[in-house]
Specification:
The protein is mainly alpha-helical. The protein is about 65% helix and about 5% strand. The chain has a two-stranded antiparallel sheet. Helix 3 runs antiparallel to helix 9. The relative contact order is 0.16.
Length: about 280
């Protein structure tokens, strides 16, 4: 029988018995019979036509950290420019701000991520203990979750027969369906995402400061900082570096926010200089 595409749902290549195949497709359910093509379950799928974005979580951290760095860097340098502060002072203050902000972004994200992983490990331990000590209750709960997701009783029976033979897979599915988490996240490096956010903040904040390190007139330095920062905000917000996920309107929204912040702080700087 020809192979068929799998819908979103459980990890069917792991859950369905090795001698099963898909013969019907309901609104949210799959029906299995025997003699499944072994290539499907061995992972020999044809290449996906619309692949997912790799390292999505890291990309999100880069967008978050970079956007903060660009907005805050532009706002700070605009305020100092409006106040008539010398370029040397703006550059030094901007570099110090970028370093402090990057470190703050890294450590705050790291502490949050570490706490998240610790909580996830606690959930995993609790679910593993419940499967070992209260299997009947956990089986009943798993059945309810599958039925809630749209699986028919006959399909639930097949899935449960597979899960009870593999407690690690049972634990994995329980966590994913009940708590909406993936067990693999507990093994993730707690430094990668925070480091991505911190470096992105540092880079974008320095980008806003960079025109003040050159011998530009005051107005030209302000305009250069604005153009660079708003361009970075557009690129980050729209995710122009991921063509299949490019959303110009999001980029425009990010740039508008940065422009408003820079404009307000520039006017504040002018007012402060006249006091």
């Amino acid at each position: 029988m020809a192979r068929q595409n799998l819908r979103k749902g459980p990890n069917l290549a792991e859950i369905v018995p090795m001698n099963s195949t898909i013969v019907g497709l309901g609104a949210k359910s799959l029906i299995w019979t025997h003699n499944m093509d072994s290539e499907v379950l061995s992972g020999s799928f044809r290449r996906e036509e619309h692949p997912h974005i790799p390292a999505r979580n890291i990309l999100d951290r880069i967008v978050l950290g970079g956007s903060d760095g660009a907005i805050e860097g532009l706002a700070m340098t605009s305020a100092l420019n409006g106040a008539g502060v010398g370029f040397g002072t703006i550059a030094v203050a901007g570099i110090a701000f970028a370093l402090a902000g990057g470190l703050s972004m890294f450590f705050s994200n790291y502490l949050s991520r570490r706490s998240e992983i610790e909580s996830l490990k606690t959930d995993i331990s609790r679910e593993r203990m419940e499967i070992e000590t209260e299997p009947d209750e956990e089986m009943s709960e798993m059945r309810e979750l599958l039925i809630r997701d749209g699986y028919a009783e006959s399909e639930v029976k097949v899935i449960m027969q597979r899960l009870v033979k593999d407690k690690s897979l049972w634990l994995k599915e329980m966590l994913r369906r009940e708590l909406k988490v993936n067990i693999e996240d507990a093994e993730a490096d707690p430094f990668v995402r925070p480091l991505s956010a911190g470096v992105a903040f540092l880079a974008m904040a320095l980008l806003a400061v960079s025109p003040y390190a050159a011998a530009f007139p005051r107005t030209s330095a302000l305009l250069a900082s604005v153009v660079l920062s708003l361009g970075a905000l557009f690129a980050l917000g729209s995710r122009v570096f991921v063509p299949r996920n490019f959303k110009p309107i999001r980029g425009i929204e990010s740039a508008v926010v940065g422009a408003i912040a820079g404009g307000i702080l520039y006017l504040v700087g002018i007012l402060v200089s006249r006091i």
